[in-house]
Amino acid sequence: MSKGPVLIELEDDDVARPDAAPAVPDIAEVPTDAAMQQVAALAARRPSRLARWFWSVAVALVGFVASLAAWDYVTGLLERSAILGGIATVLVGLLIVMLLAVGLRELAAFGRLRRLDTIQKQAEEALAAGDLKGARAVIAALDRLYAAREDTAWGRAELQQRQSDVLDADGVLGLAENTLLAPLDARAQREVEAAARQVATVTAIVPLALADLFTALTANLRMIRRVAEIYGGRAGTLGSWRLTRSVLTHLVATGAVAVGDDLIGSVAGGGVLSKVSRRFGEGIVNGALTARVGVAAIEVCRPLPFHAAKRPSVTALVRRALTGLFGGS
Predict the structure, then answer these.
(1) 280, 273 in Cβ contact below 8 A?
(2) Are 176 and 302 contacting, i.e. CB atoms less than 8 angstroms apart?
(3) How far is CA 317 from CA 56, 184, 283, in A?
(4) What is the DSSP string of 42-57?
(5) Rounded distance between C-alpha atoms, residue 296 and residue 203, angstroms
(6) Partner of 35 for a Cys bridge, out of 91, 213, 290, 295, CB 3.0 to 4.6 A?
(7) Mean pLDDT of 194-222
(8) DSSP assigned state of 323
(9) pTM for the complete prediction?
């Protein structure tokens, strides 16, 4: 028996080739049924004409029945007791006044949102045409928009002092972005980061059914409303829902809520915990999609389009929002 090494000769077909080895399967897939996708799809879905007619008739019928019941109740009280009838009449009158006040507030909220949209369109036209006069008109509209806000006092004063030194539309609007809107942009981005962090945390930790869907919906509604308030477009209840629906409709139409693209895939697949737990992966995805909704809300509510200032990066927002969560993902 030989005590030396044993040499086994292999045929060429049996030689191991690392480059020909099959790829290691990725056991952690990016979730395709994230809550933010469901929220966006539900909010962007346009109701049918039959459904709109149904709800209009239902609301009109309920209002008619409630008004008739209140009338019968008040007249019955007046017949029984003048004092009780008078109290009921005063209360019903106060309710009507409050409803009118709420309606006026909603109309004012729609007016503020239209004002932001009008200024943004004027700025886009001035930039496209290089119209210095139009750019100065936009600056004047911005000054009127933020005249009552103390947090914009320095920016407005700086803008008024330096705008006469700039002789082109790009420079005037760029000056407005860097002096007046820069602090507002920073505040809006912090709101987006907070909402993304909340949605990601609740999705990953709370195991209750529909908890992630409810959290995504409420957090995004609140985020969009606060972003609008930061830029001067404080909306009421109906205005907030209309603004939210327009933002999510834009995201769905442009495919920005797709989970399978490079950004979301890299975010969801970058963390170790996302490969171990599907809940953590969904949390990261929902947080990233919330950041995208926030960036879209900033673009919609911002009175000036991004030109001199850099558009917020979704990747940077997600990184800052989720730093320290889910293993540093």
Answers:
(1) yes
(2) no
(3) 41, 16, 15
(4) HHHPPPPHHHHHHHHH
(5) 22
(6) 213
(7) 81
(8) T
(9) 0.71
CB 285 within 8 A of CB 259: yes
CA distances, 100 to each of 42, 97, 215 (Å): 31, 5, 32
Give the integer Cα–Cα distance in Å for 241 and 105.
15
pLDDT tens per residue, range 223-270: 888 998 898 877 667 767 777 776 767 566 555 555 444 455 545 444
Unique residue bearing structure tokens 């309606």: 103
Q: At what angle do helices 237-254 and 211-230 cross, to 10 degrees?
A: 110
Q: How is residue 266 written in tokens?
A: 């890299």
Closest CA to 111 of 140, 119, 178, 252: 119
Rounded to an integer, what is the distance from CA 274 to the centroid of its chain?
24
What number of other Cβ atoms are within 10 A of residue 34's Cβ? 28
Q: Give yes or no for a contact between 235 and 243, defined as CB atoms under 8 angstroms apart.
A: yes
Q: Are 145 and 232 in contact (CB under 8 A)?
A: yes
Token digits for 300? 């919609």
Check residues 276 and 139 and name the one with the higher pLDDT: 139
C-alpha closest to that of 189 among 307, 302, 95, 329: 302
Q: Which two tokens stand for residue 26?
A: 């990725």
| Exposed/middle/buried for residue 97 (C-beta within 10 Å: 0-12, 13-18, 19+) | exposed
pLDDT in tens, 147-203: 888 888 888 888 888 887 878 888 888 888 888 888 999 999 999 999 988 888 888
Instruction: Please tell me which residue, 38 or 156, carries the higher pLDDT value.
Output: 156
**Which pLDDT score is estimated for 30?**
44
> Which residue do the tokens 């008078």 mark?
86
